[in-house]
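For reference, the entry.
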Amino acid sequence: QLRATGDAAGARVVVLEKDLSESSTIQDCPDAQDTDNNGRFGFANLPVGLYRFRAFADGYAPGDSEAVITDSNTEAVVRVATGSSIAGVVRDGVTQNVLAGFPIRMTVKDSNERARSVETDSEGNFFIEGLQEGTYVLSSGHETMFFADGRIEVSVPRAAPVSGLEIATQTGVTVRGRVLREKTQTPVANAIIRAFHTTIRSISRTSAETDEAGHYEIAGLAPGPNQFYVSMGETNVSARKLPTLPEGVAETEFDIHVSEAVVVDGLVLGQPGEPVGGAIVEVRAWEPGTMGQEGM
């Protein structure tokens, strides 16, 4: 059994990394345990192997243990330190009224860590605690409103609060229209439209499925250039025209014309034949007889 001692009661301790021994007869274990009132946690019947653990507790930054090798009775200590915090208020950018219950998403910049979500209180205030030193990105989680400045980056020092953030919001534009096949002008039913602002990438919306006449509706889009993508079953195509939504209007109309697309799947390999993740693949038009001539 694995135990740890500390004073962070009610913390959640998770298995951060594990490298099981080939001789282990047990290949599975609990993913997480909670500490008791004395800050102790226990994982029973762990497979033999090398482990690291991470603890999450309210008001503390996440803490990691040293790597430990499990045997019949292994002790490990996970140390957590008082975390930093971000606090501020969210207001309507037009009326300046505070917005209660406004959802905010927070992510760590340039990280794949899972986003955290909070809501403002009755006075429009929000408070996010237990943060490590680093840069965090705040974005709107509201269905029809967005931050007027787009995503907000906040640099957080070690064990110190960041307060006084004033965030203004803006109500988005509702777009209605039809999805039509470009050549025949016939409607596309059961399609889903995803819209992305071309400069404020944190603002993206998804429609419900189009009806039999191809009608769709998307609310909460930012004025300016937007890119529309249409999902038709397993096929994804972009709108033939890039819509620029006007300022100062609540609603507008835009018909999306799509052409049938060919789906191409492929694999990027490096040396010696290993798959390459995160590669960007460009598609370029070419004329017959010119294939393979670029770069010669």
